[in-house]
Specification:
The complex is a heterodimer. By secondary structure, chain A is mainly α. Chain A has 2 domains: 27-95, Helicase, Ruva Protein, domain 3; 97-155. Helix content of chain A is 70%, strand content 3%. Chain A has 6 helices and 2 strands; from the N terminus they run ααββαααα. Chain A is elongated, with a radius of gyration of 34 Å. Chain A starts with a helix and ends with a helix. By secondary structure, chain B is of the alpha/beta class. Chain B has one domain: 3-Layer(aba) Sandwich (Glutaredoxin), CATH 3.40.30.10. Chain B contains 6 helices and 7 strands. In chain B, the strands form 2 sheets. In chain B, strands 5-4-3-6-7 form a 5-stranded mixed sheet. In chain B, strands 1-2 form a two-stranded antiparallel sheet. In chain B, α4 links the parallel β4 and β5 (130-133). The radius of gyration of chain B is 22 Å and the shape is elongated. The chains are: A mainly alpha, B alpha/beta.
């Protein structure tokens, strides 16, 4: 009886060990990493490179590292060690160009804001000016034509 | 009568023109360098671009300059490239043949995982020296757009022939063998 209880305790400990290890394992997935790294040959994020042989190898490499319990950052570092910083898709990941990493977000945002402002300003000015006058002139011309027609047909 | 152009169509037109210009620039910028082929077709041999890379074994570095005085068959490859599998045994046979005449095949494993590349070398029992270009930096200077690509470099470091795609025995016989002859 006592032996059976001891065996049960040992079995429970053995079964519980992998679960504990899995709980300590950093949680990441292929899908989570795929969006943040590039397929260097394809020149696209890995998630978009569906059939490229190099992308398949890269995915297999990532999956091996995930199975090895590596964290997302560790996997990205391992990829950078293989393919250089160009494999990192997100600005700021490379940690080599702080100003560039900021500018890459700021410049497009500024560009979009300036373009939107310019278009809004132009549209507002256009509505205030040219077209309204043009519409008024067309209306006056229409009325004149109507009057001429009515006179012609003696209505 | 003065005709007032609406700003929205003008803005749209400008945006379309800008996009077209951007596309044209992108196409022009990505055009591979074909200067080597042009030089070869006019009967001249260009000096090979400088190349210095770590060895695939992980120990030390090598440069093309180290091979000056030898005929070098510089082969850019990757383990995921199917045609590279077909040509590798042929390159190894030629490497053994070339060694006797003062030549070598020099492999450059490009945009590849080191472990995969080493497995490939073991699988095909390749004996020629291998360099590693994980970031693919040498692609630009050699105008490489795919794998495999092979450059035949003469004893004075000039490019004597190029093959964009897998090499075959006929190419090696016609382009490499004459360079190995004494006095070539």
């Amino acid at each position: 009886m006592r032996r059976a209880a001891a065996l049960a305790v040992v079995a429970a400990a053995l079964l519980g060990a992998p679960a504990t290890a899995a709980a300590q394992c950093p949680r990441t997935s292929l899908g989570d990493i795929e969006d943040e790294v590039m397929c260097p040959v394809c020149g696209t994020p890995l998630s978009l490179a569906t059939d490229a042989p190099q992308a398949e190898r890269e995915r297999a490499f990532i999956e091996r590292l995930i199975a090895d319990c590596r964290s997302k950052d560790e996997i990205k570092n391992a990829l950078a060690a293989q393919f250089g910083d160009a494999v990192l898709a997100l600005p700021g990941d490379a940690e080599d160009d702080d100003l560039g990493d900021v500018l890459v977000y700021v410049v497009p945002a500024l560009g979009i804001a300036i373009a939107a402002g310019g278009i809004a300003f132009a549209v507002a000015r256009w509505r205030r000016g040219g077209p309204r006058e043009g519409r008024r002139a067309a209306e006056v011309e229409g009325e004149r034509r109507l009057e001429r027609d009515m006179e012609r047909y003696e209505l | 009568m003065r005709r007032v152009l609406a700003p929205v169509p003008i803005a749209v037109m400008c945006a379309v023109l800008a996009l077209v210009a951007l596309l044209a620039y992108g196409l022009a910028a990505n055009e591979p360098d074909r200067g080597v082929e042009e030089a070869l077709s006019s009967g001249t041999r260009e000096q090979a671009p400088p190349l210095e890379l770590p060895r695939l074994s992980g120990v030390g570095r090598e440069s093309l300059e180290d091979y000056r005085g030898k005929v070098v068959v510089l082969n850019f490859w990757a383990s995921w490239c199917k045609p590279c599998r077909e040509e590798s045994p042929l390159l190894d046979r030629w490497h053994r043949r070339m060694k006797r005449g003062g030549g070598t095949v020099l492999g450059v494993d490009s945009l590849d995982l080191t472990t995969d590349a080493r497995d490939f070398i073991r699988e095909y029992e390749l004996s020629y020296p291998m360099l590693r270009d994980g970031e693919g930096e040498s692609r630009e200077s050699f105008g490489i757009v795919g794998f495999p690509e092979t450059f035949v470099i003469d004893r004075s470091g000039r490019i004597a022939a190029v093959r964009r795609g897998p090499v075959d025995d006929a190419f090696m016989r016609s382009q490499v063998a004459p360079l190995l002859r004494p006095g070539a």
